[in-house]
Amino acid sequence: MNDLRAVAVWRDGAAVRVPADQPVVSAFDQGLGRGDGVFESVLVVDGGTPYLAAHLNRLAGSASLLDLADPGASAWEALLGAVRTGWPRDVEGACRLFLTRGLGEGAPPTALALLAPVPAETLRQRTEGISVVSLGIGVPAAFRATAPWLLGGAKTLSYAVNMAAQRHARSIGADDAVLTSLEGQLLEGPTSTVVWAAGGTLHTPPVETGILPGTTQARLFDRARQQGWPTAVTPGTVADLHAADGVWLLSGIRGPATVHTLDGVPRADAGLSARVRELAGR
Amino acid sequence: MNDLRAVAVWRDGAAVRVPADQPVVSAFDQGLGRGDGVFESVLVVDGGTPYLAAHLNRLAGSASLLDLADPGASAWEALLGAVRTGWPRDVEGACRLFLTRGLGEGAPPTALALLAPVPAETLRQRTEGISVVSLGIGVPAAFRATAPWLLGGAKTLSYAVNMAAQRHARSIGADDAVLTSLEGQLLEGPTSTVVWAAGGTLHTPPVETGILPGTTQARLFDRARQQGWPTAVTPGTVADLHAADGVWLLSGIRGPATVHTLDGVPRADAGLSARVRELAGR
Which residues of A touch B165 (CB under 8 A)? Predict the structure, then answer.
């Protein structure tokens, strides 16, 4: 499927499509050498990007937390338009929007969009659910709110630990991870938001812990409330997930993935996943 | 000085010099999109790289911690040779070696070298010393040794927090930062190793805290011991730095930078910096 990839870069105030198999980033770009940048992953489906606004809103927030100049929604829309040109309607795409510090302080940021088909493994996990392990990050739940240099709430390009957590999960036979605070409070997945159902309510951890505000979680919660399903921001633990009526890891590309196994223990399924998927829009 | 930059990439088993002002990395490279890679910064001075072996040794260790295939010392030496071709002997250079996960699991890693003059501000700090602030990272000193997914001891491309800590330091009038654990134990600088002199001994924090093993610190300590200056690995605090006879942040490019101010308080200078600089080799 590599021939379906597409890349566009922001140059001189315009989106420029460039060949996907050719280099586009300087070796001196701080996004490469320092992971000094932010990103979003936007689902391209049925020829559109139905949830783009929430992603651009979060991207602007991440950029602000890193003191990066966001080129603005119209620039991102132009980049998205450039990579979507010629994209087949029947192929789901994952579009990454990158904003980096470019060549460093004082230089213009690098902005680019890249589009590729959603990986088959992601589609499988969306359908079949996932096995998850809990992994601690060692930071108290309240700490990051007091330490802005830790970039809590920013979706940065520095995902080496997120990737290592997923590799560690796979190395012990799971699909993904749930990260926890030093005290064992639920935080988030390496690339997802944690949601659980208990007591007739949908729950998710507080963003004050330094986790990312989830775009899919926000959409699910809005629609659930509209339909009379209560929602709550709740500090929870892994024990709460074991006891829940349903647990999902939510992300923009994979959607809500049902957690069928947690730390090696099968979870009961109360039959809520279909409704969660419908409300989340996938 | 931009015309002095040089870049070389590893292609088909050979180092290939490429124009420094042209893109060299794919938008899909996991080093860019995930900060999923490792690096070293090697000083180029007097036409040579006198401390290369220690950097290549640490790079191999970082690669192992991230399950990355290291192309090996001969590949890095070839890349270094390619970027050093034509480099003027009288200009100090900072050579970055990058190893990334390339296009992802199963694909070959990306290996490249980039060389640029040492920034004037770095040379100034080496000579004039630095003002430093202490910033917590919120993790207990003993935690990272129990959690390999946090990549303690690996020098990864995911330096967004390191850069944010330095930006935060500059925003409050300092030059750099010293990071501390949840309990207030000394860890490291965002791009350096902490060393202090007290009781006739040179001290540095234990690597079991998850900090990087410092190449310049190791060289300094080896030479100090040879000359009868005792060294010790010591869990310390910011109070120990205030009380010390000398404090330095050590890095390969800047060398030992004397900390003349700590959290806004001027530090006494017992006149040890010249000897530290001489022993460290710069």
Answer: 149
pLDDT surpasses 60 at B66: yes
- Look-up of token digits 């979680």: A217
Q: Is B161 on the interface with A (CB under 8 A)?
A: yes
Q: Which chain A residues are Cβ-neighbours of B162 within 8 angstroms?
A: 34
Query: What pLDDT band is residue B105 in, cutting at 50, 70 and 90?
Result: confident
Do both B67 and B37 map to the same domain? yes
A249 & A275 share domain: yes
- The reply to whether A159 and A95 lie within a common domain is no
Q: What is the pTM of this model?
A: 0.97
Question: A223: distance to nearest CA of chain B, Å?
Answer: 31
B33: CATH? 3.30.470.10
Show which of B67, B83, B118 is a domain's final residue.
B118
Number of domains comprising chain B: 2
Assign residue A86 a region (left: φ > 0; alpha: ψ between -120 and 50; beta: otherwise).
left
B132-146: average pLDDT: 98
Phi then psi for residue B185, to 5 deg, are: -75, 145
Last residue of a domain, one of A118, A144, A174: A118
Measured between CB atoms, does B203 come within 8 Å of chain A?
no
Domain residues for the domain of A11 are 6-118
Sorted by sequence, the CB contacts under 8 Å of residue B116 that are 6+ apart come out as: A28, B1, B4, B5, B6, B93, B94
Of residues A210, A207, A228, A219, the one with CA closest to residue A251:
A219
Q: Do B182 and A140 touch (CB under 8 A)?
A: yes
Model confidence at A268: pLDDT above 90:
no
Is residue B212 domain-shared with residue B251, that is, in the same domain? yes
A53 touching B (Cβ < 8 Å): no
Cβ contact (<8 Å) for A33 and B39?
yes
Tell me if B27 and A167 make a contact (CB, 8 A cut-off).
no
Q: Any chain B CB within 8 A of the CB of A155?
A: no
Residues B4, B54, B255, B174, Cα dihedral to 10°: 90
Are A277 and A197 a contacting pair, CB within 8 Å?
Answer: no
Q: Does A1 fall in a domain?
A: no
pLDDT at B1: 44
Does one domain contain both A105 and A230? no
B134 and B188 assigned to the same domain: yes
Categorize the per-residue pLDDT at B278 as very low, low, confident or very high, splitting at 50, 70 and 90: very high
